[in-house]
Amino acid sequence: MERKLPLVELTTNVLIELKRLNYADNTINSYRRLFKRMTVFAAEKDETYFSENLGNDFLKEKYNCTINYYEEAMPKNVKHAIRMIRVLGDYQIHGVIIRRIVKKPQYVKPLQFEAVLNAYEKECELNDYSKRGMRTRVQRLFFFIDYLNLRKVQAVGDVSADMISDYVKTIFPHHEKSIASILTTLRVFLKFLYLNNYTEKDLSINVPKQNKYYYPSIPSIWRSEEVRCMLECIDRGNPTGKRDYAILLLVARLGVRVGDVKKLKLSDLNWNTKLIIITQEKTKTTTTYPILNDIGWAIIDYLKNARPISNSPYVFIRMHAPYESFGKDANLYNIITKYTRLAGIPITKEKRHGLHSLRHSLASGLLEQGTPLPIISEILGHLNSKSTSIYLQTSIERLRLCAIDPEDIL
Questions:
Q1: Which of 58, 138, 322, 358 is found 20 to 30 A from 39 (Cα to Cα)?
Q2: Distance separating alpha carbons of residues 155 and 309, to the nearest angstrom
Q3: Do residues 324 and 318 touch, judged by C-beta distance below 8 A?
C-alpha cells in the first residue's frame, strides 16, 4: 500500500535515507537540487503529493523526456533525473530506496515455441554452460525462432530443410566468425530437437558447414612502458585508486581473467602459503597463482585502508553504496579506460583496450623472454596450447625463429 506523504516530507525522508546509505555528498546534493525544482513544479501545478503522472510531467516539461523508462534505455542526458524521480516513486510505495537497473524488454517467446525453448534452456543449464555463453547462444537462436514465426510455422516438427537453407541465406552479411557461431548454435538446437523426439528427422545435418581455417585475430597488446605508465598514474592515496591498482596488477602481472577477478573471494587468499587458489569461471579448472610482493601489498593496502565495510565475501566490491560485488555483466572496462586517459596513452580505433588486452600483453612479454608455450598456456589458464599459439603473431623475433631459410631448401 502506498505511503502517502506530502512531497516536501517525502523528499526530506529520501535525503535522510541516502545519507544513511552512505551515498556521496555530491550525489545527495544533486538529489537535493532536483527535489527543490520538483517541489516548485508541484506547487505550480497545485499538487501536494508525489504521483507517477506528476513525475512524468516534470520530466517531460523540464527535460523533454517522454520515454517509458521501464521498457526503454535511458537517454544519457536525462538518466540521472529519471533515476531521482524513480527513487521518489519507489520510496513512496516501498519506504526504501531500490537499486534499479533498467534493461531492455525481455524477449517474448512465440507461444508455439515457448515450451521447446524452455526445455532447451534447461538442457543448456544441465550441460553446465556458463551464464554468459548460454545467454549469447540463446540470443542467436531467437533470430531463427523469429524467422520461423514470420513464416507462420506452428511447431518445430514443421521445420523443413528448405526453411533452414532459406534462413542460412539471410546470415551471409554477417562477419564469418558470427556466421560460424550462428551455424553452430542452429546445428546444436536442431540436434536437441531430434534427440528429444520433437522432430522425426535429424535436421542438423542440413545446416551447412563453414569451411575455414583456424586464424584468430592478432591480439592487441600494450608495450611494457605503457603498462608501467598507466599503473604509475593511479592515485593510490584514493580508496578507489587502491582498489583499481590491485585489480590491474592481478591482470597485468598474473593474467587473471576479469570474471575471476570479480569472483575472487577473501577465502581464496592464502597468506600463509602466499597463494591464490580459485576455480576459473570460464574453464571450471582449479588454478593457483602466486601472491607476488607488489600484488600482495596492493591487496593488503586496499583491504586495510580502502575497502568499504561490507558483509560481501568478495575481495573487490563497489566503492559506492550499496557496497556489494560487481554486476554479473560488468567487464570493468571503465577502470582501464580511466587510467589510459590519465596516462595520455594514445588509443587507435582498431586497437582493443579492455582489461583482457593486459592478458595479451603478459603472454607476449613472456614469449619474448623465451617462455615455452605450454607454460604460458598454464599461466593464462588455457585448456590447450592452441589458444596460446596466437601470441606467436605478436612477436616478430619468435616468428623469425620459425622462418625457413630459402638457401637451406635450395
A1: 322
A2: 54
A3: yes
